[in-house]
Design brief:
Blueprint (H helix, E strand, L loop, with lengths): L2 H16 L2 H21 L9 E5 L4 H8 L10 E2 L2 H9 L5 E5 L3 H6 L7 E4 L4 H24 L23 H32 L2 H5 L5 H31 L8 H25 L3 H18 L11 H6 L4 H14 L4 H30 L1
Parallel strand pairs: 1-2, 1-3
Antiparallel strand pairs: 3-4
Helix pairs in contact: 1-9, 2-7, 2-9, 7-9, 7-10, 7-11, 7-13, 9-10, 10-13, 10-14, 13-14
């Protein structure tokens, strides 16, 4: 084995990547636009929901209810007629439509239990799931204050003092930006290394390499270091310019420690990309195979939902996946400011998993060359 061969072959891979506009666009999109949109779209709870009100009572209590819906949870309510209610919801203009019936205030003062109709567009699933509870709480609060003739705070037997750490503003966009960076690192490392090998096969240059005085280890190592370097540089630039700069997301821990963990993670995922490329014959087949691998990795790694909420057998099985440890490492460093004394088990696990995947992929790669 010669390090010069690995270096020169890696430079060749970088030149090949530079001549592929689609992969360059994918790298740019994944580390800029995708991170920005993922951060801005993360508030999956109720946010500026469109609501319309049919006020058939025209009373002081109905006016109180209408004026209680305000941003940021709701847009300013739009007053409509009952005839417009169904057509507007069918057109997707309103997520919630509240119908206050005639004589509503008179029935309240008479001690009756009048009914208010609430129509919800359930195709907007996230807002519909939480929005109904918000509307019911707002309406009940306004009616209770109207009947009591004063506004009073609910007294509880225990006063709970809250101390919010790491994200005092409870800004969901901070989590979304960092999660998109983690996802992009995993996805792009597998795609770029797999595409590099398949590109060799489709262009017929793999036969040229076989007649040269290079070993399979050198060929594979060159693809791993070159594509891993591209992803590492793109992720570091994205973390500094997009996450910290454009989105103003505070990074609690050491960026260098995170990048070191990302390098170990790339060692494992690029080896996985080589293995998947040896199984797939063409890029479409590689894309389909990637979907079968990436979806379980992303969903079950703890990036989207906490690992503690999953069955124990799933938690144990996913410890064999590199991105499970990378997600734990990234969240510990970037969110909680953890140091080397906290994340060293994840670093050791990534190194061990990467070594196993590299050895397994190298064996498969040699069979592929034969």
């Amino acid at each position: 084995m010669r390090l010069a061969n690995i270096l020169q072959l890696g430079v060749k891979e970088l030149r090949g990547l530079g001549r592929d506009p689609m992969l360059l666009f994918l790298i740019f999109y994944a580390f800029t636009v995708s991170i920005y949109t993922g951060s801005k779209a993360i508030p999956e709870t109720l946010n500026r929901a469109a609501i319309a009100v049919v006020d058939e009572d025209q009373s002081p209590v109905s006016s109180r209810i209408i004026t209680a819906f305000n941003p940021p949870y709701f847009l300013i309510p739009r007053l409509i007629t009952q005839r417009e209610m169904d057509s507007r919801m069918d057109s997707g203009l309103d997520t919630f439509a509240l119908d206050i019936p005639p004589d509503f205030q008179r029935d309240l003062l008479a001690g009756r239990s009048p009914t208010i109709q609430l129509n919800i567009d359930a195709t907007r699933m996230t807002q519909a799931f939480t929005g109904g509870g918000y509307v019911q709480s707002i309406v009940s609060s306004e009616i209770s204050e109207f009947l009591s003739h004063y506004r009073a705070a609910t007294k509880v037997p225990v006063d709970l003092a809250l101390r919010t750490r790491f994200n005092q503003q409870l800004n969901r966009g901070w989590f979304g930006a960092v999660h998109e960076v983690i996802t992009a690192i995993t996805m792009l490392s597998i795609i770029l290394t797999g595409a590099a090998l398949i590109r060799e096969r489709e262009h017929g240059t793999i036969e040229h390499l076989l007649v040269m005085p290079v070993t399979p280890f050198e060929i594979m190592a060159s693809k791993i270091w070159s594509m891993g370097l591209v992803v590492l540089l793109a992720s570091s630039v994205s973390l500094i310019l997009v996450v910290q700069g454009l989105l103003s997301v505070p990074i609690q821990g050491s960026v260098l420690l995170f990048l070191f963990g990302a390098a170990l993670h790339l060692f494992a995922t690029t080896s996985m990309g080589i293995f998947l490329a040896t199984l797939a014959g063409t890029m479409p087949q590689f894309g389909l195979l990637l979907m079968l691998i990436m979806l379980p990795l992303q969903v079950l790694s703890g990036g989207l939902t906490p690992r503690e909420s999953m069955p124990q057998i799933i938690q144990d099985l996913m410890l064999a996946a590199p991105n499970t440890h990378f997600v734990i490492l990234a969240q510990s460093i970037l969110f909680r400011g953890a140091g080397l004394d906290v994340v060293w088990p994840q670093l050791v696990a990534l190194l061990g998993i990467g070594t196993i995947l590299f050895a397994f992929s190298l064996q498969r790669f040699r069979q592929f060359l034969r």
